[in-house]
Amino acid sequence: MRLVVLGGGESGIGTAILGLKKGFQVFVSDNGTIAKKYKKVLLNTRIPFEEEGHTESEVLKADVVMKSPGIPDKVPLIQKLKQEGIKVISEIEFASHFTDATIVGITGSNGKTTTTMLTHHILKNEGFNVGMAGNIGDSFAQQVAENQYQNYVLELSSFQLDGIEKFAPHIAIITNITPDHLDRYNYKIENYIDSKFRITMNQTENDYLIYDADDKHIAEWLKSNKIKAQLLPFSIERILEKGAFIRDNNIVIKTNTEEFIMGITSLALQGKHNVKNGMASAMTAQLLKVRKQTIRESLEDFEGAEHRLESVLKINGVQYINDSKATNVNATFYALDSMTTPTVWIVGGVDKGNDYFDLMPLVREKVKAIICLGVENDKIKQTFGNVIDLIVETAGAEEAVKVAYKIAEKGDSVLLSPACASFDLFENYEDRGRQFKKAVREL
Question: Domain count of the chain?
């Protein structure tokens, strides 16, 4: 069997390693350059590869193609493969064929990284043999090739779910759905929502779908579509018969007959969205028979994800916060909602069709100045120009931080929460976050 891997990044190299181990004839093809660390792996394992372009005749010899999540379906080469009847799948689909582990799959527009890390943290504390992969850490395929984990917690993007056929997690979580990546879905939110719900398409009556009952997109989709999995909702707005909800400032979880109760104030991560992330993770743990004591302790001592509302330093009474992972408006909504002091907001980057208007009430209430960090800032200036007196454009993290330092006064916060992708000025959101933190430390 010939496996062609399109894209020599994390998921591509993991797939190549697993494919080689399982006896496939593997060929890796990348349209750009392959990073040094990945090229080294290919050379060491003697996997043939090409970079700076795809040789169509070589790619079309495939029995199966794994394409990296970054390659859109509309690319002519992908269209041609499909016309030829060659199977094109994601790394998640490929790797899932080679493991019998219990899988928890987590998707959603926001909160999926925190929920993935938190769920993994709880299971690990209970002594589970558990791996964490997907959009986070080492690729799922590489972990299947090199480890014997009995459980996986996978963070799954819509792009990864677009490439599944039979993949079925035992527990699926949809944290929320808000417009994101619409450029990949013909600017139709319906297509994006359908994509997220692929996570449950192969689940059976013995599996579970945990979801945000307060999310209108999720609620509407579930009304008009039938699924087989058992439904477990969570809500911070109303009391539910089954699932997770809030009663007297406590999180209450009912997955079967017994209740799990924990005070909201003892959660390590505060904010409404983190209450929801905690609910989803705790329900998952309860389904997997983790002791209540472990769930409680894990929710109390969990440290959040880097680049997600991460406190960097306090300088002259001003708190600097790195929320570089906020690559869409909804993530920034959460960030602004959690601010309790006057805020200098650093925003901007590659706009994915954002509507900033949803942020207006929070900006009016909390933001004293806006610093634009992107090549194209017109939309931000148009939206907030009449509400915020001070809007400054900058061309890099260092300049943005220096400007913020001049504007912010004792008792204020400086929040990097871009609401945009980062590819105009940075390699990725991690690079953006690290450059921000470096600039803060050098003040």
Answer: 3
CATH number where 221 lies: 3.40.1190.10
CA–CA distance, 153 with 118 (Å, rounded to integer)? 10
- Whole domain around residue 416: which residue ranges? 310-441
Q: Are residues 272 and 348 in the same domain?
A: no
3-class SS shares of the chain: helix, strand, coil, % to 5: 40, 20, 40
Q: Is 244 helix (H, G, I), strand (E, B) or coil?
A: strand
Residue ranges at the known binding site: 108-114
How many CB atoms neighbour CB 387 within 10 A? 12
* pTM attached to this predicted model: 0.77
Q: Tell which of 89, 109, 124 closes a domain.
A: 89
Separation in Å, CA 220 to CA 194, 223, 277, 339? 12, 5, 21, 31
User: Residues forming the annotated binding site for ATP?
Assistant: 108-114
Convert the pLDDT of each residue in 73-112 to its tens digit: 889 999 999 999 999 999 999 999 999 999 999 999 888 8
Please report, to the nearest 10 degrees, the dihedral formed by the alpha carbons of residues 286, 289, 295, 298 taken in order.
Answer: -120
- Distance from C-alpha of 85 to C-alpha of 354, rounded to nearest angstrom: 36
Instruction: Check whether residue 324 and residue 222 sit in a common domain.
Output: no
pLDDT digits (tens, 9 = 90+) for 390-442: 999 998 999 999 999 999 999 999 999 999 988 888 989 999 999 999 999 99
CA–CA distance, 196 with 245 (Å, rounded to integer): 23
Residue type (1 letter), 170: H
**Same-domain check for residues 333 and 241:** no
